[in-house]
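Lay summary. Proteins are chains of building blocks that fold into shapes, and those shapes determine what they do. In this project we predict the shape from the chain. Here is one chain we studied, written as its sequence of building blocks.
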Amino acid sequence: MRATFLTGGYTESSGGHAQGIGLIRPTSDGALMFAGLAASASSPSFLVHGELEGVLYSVDEAGNRVLAFERDMDGPLRTLGWQRSSGTAPCHLSATRDWLYSSNYGTGEIDVFPLGHDGSIGPLYDTVVPGARVPGPHPAQDGPHAHSTLVLGDGVLGDTVLGADLGCDTVGIHRFVDGHLTRVRSIDFPAGTGPRDIAVGPDGRVFVLGELSCVVFELTGLDTDIPRISRSGPSTTSPAPADHAAGLVISPDGRRLYTGLRGSNRIAVLNVDDLTPVAAVDCVGDWPRHLAIDAGTLLVACERSGTVSVLPIDEKTGIPGPGTSIEVPSPTYLLAVGA
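And here is the predicted shape, written in a compact code that computers can read:
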């Protein structure tokens, strides 16, 4: 049996066909089926679990809000309220027991919201404004575009927060200084990289995906005065000029790294140890935006085809094989919520 998944999606407010947060359930024969709505919401394109059991958070990318929900065992979600973001197009969230961090893609800020004892979101506490670096050369880099965060550590004011800026080709390192989240250092990436997603392997190694260059980077020294890119590698040996990489997931055994190539509609597979390409296979859909691994299977949210692909992963090679797909309206994110 596979896990149950909630699906983020684009609704009419962002030109999509979803009606809110969807629900995917395993069937009795081990397949998956779209089970309809878990909650109506405007463009909940990204979802994340909170520290409290049953609590999760969503962006409203079109409405410039962050939302909180509580889930019961049957799947439907009950709202715990929302707060307005400081900027536009919030596209990513990270949550600890105390804070919710939101990345505003449109205007480049990272927002910090306090979380209540019940998981509800308090009024905006802090905002980190974009850095002063000149945006990159790609047409999509028309200004700062905060795309994701990753929290290292967990304390009332003890978090270290990495923040990827697609527009300015940087990953900022932020810590609380005098009670405010502050950018203390920054790692510069090659011009035109477009840092998008950050992932941590089971051994604690940190990787960054370049959406525009389709290159994967490993970061080291994040707890020192000299953080740096230690190595990098292309996602594929057969790049397509129009590809935009999205979604970064590492296999549970830490051997393989997967990303979607939007444009050529492939899944790229890399060796984690040396960041070399292993394979690039058909994603069985259009515009692979997010990936998840469950029960030896790679699930791919294919936004434009309105499908989620189900690709079995070969145990020896780690390469996803030919698979099937189910219809899910404009899926943008996959969040496992239990078996």
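What the prediction tells us: The first strand starts at residue 5 and ends at 9.
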